Amino acid sequence: MFLSTFEKQLDAKRRLVVPQEFRALVSGPFDGVFCFPSIEADCIEGGGKALFDRYAGVIEELDFGDPLRSALETSVFGGMARLSFDTAGRITLPEGLCEMFGLTDWVVIVGLGDRFQIWQREAFQAHRAAQREMARAGLAQMRAQQRAARAGAGQ
Predict the structure, then answer these.
(1) What is the residue-wise DSSP string for 1-44?
(2) Helix (H, G, I), strand (E, B), or coil: what is residue 115?
(3) How many Å is the maximal CA-CA distance in the chain?
């Protein structure tokens, strides 16, 4: 699983050292990662072949010609870059993806289990604060529902 959060600096050629822990997770026939514009946030999403296969599976469940299928194909497959590691464990981010999300200097790489995200540092700080608040509120609501269900079951 991709875990933890790392701050890394892009060099002048848009190269980024991928954390060793992440590189070890994607080793296989293709020595690199797949990256594309995230659907859920203003960042780059990435992962190994397992993530690619997961998106392909979701897309294949939809009928050919379905507007959602077309949107996912355009967003995921059309925006995807296959990035190989160099000998130092770096990937070179495509210029278009860097421009899209304002990635110029320091970035944050966030592990999300079966995938990771690459954020502009300040954008991630705001996103993380909003996510923490949503997690707190959602967990409190879930606990209240569980208590209500237990109270109802005891009657």
Answers:
(1) -B-SEEEEE--TT-EEEPPHHHHHHT-SSS-EEEEEE-SSSSSE
(2) coil
(3) 66
Six-digit token string for 47: 């992962």
**5-121 is classed CATH 2.170.120.30:** no
Both structure tokens of 51:
């993530």
What are 59's two structure tokens? Answer: 């897309």
What letter represents residue 118's amino acid?
I
68-94: per-residue pLDDT in tens? 999 999 999 999 999 999 989 899 999
> Could you tell me the pTM of the whole model?
0.87
How remote is the C-alpha of 117 from its chain's centroid? 3
- CB of 98 within 8 A of CB of 14? yes
**Residue 60, number of CB atoms within 10 A of its CB:** 10
